[in-house]
Each structure stands twice: as structure tokens, then as C-alpha cells.
Amino acid sequence: MKFSASDQILAVITMHKERVGGSAPIFYVENFQELEKVALYLARIFMGAVHDLGNGVYIIVKH
Fold it and tell me: What is the bridge-based pairing of β-strands 57-61 and 49-52?
């Protein structure tokens, strides 16, 4: 059975376009409040978990 990180990362949410890339959907937001709100809503929709990478980037993953 083969797994890769891109199969488990459902979305990336960030305020910093220059810090992210890859094949997962990327959502750009304007401020910290919007970052938290969008991350929470997407996690609920995808039934995933939010992880704060600590650099203004959140990811939604499926465990």
C-alpha cells in the first residue's frame, strides 16, 4: 500500500502566497481572522483536522 503526503493533505490556507505550493488546493486569505474561519469551515466540510504550521499557514489533513 502506497501513501504520499499529497494524498492526505486536503487543503492549504495561507496569508502568504510565497510560502506555499504543491498539488493540494490552496486558499488565500487577507488576515488572521479569515485564516482561522476558512480553516475551520474547510475542516468541517472535509471532515479533516486543522494543523497550524506556525508560519501563517494552516493545512487540513485526513487522518
Answer: antiparallel
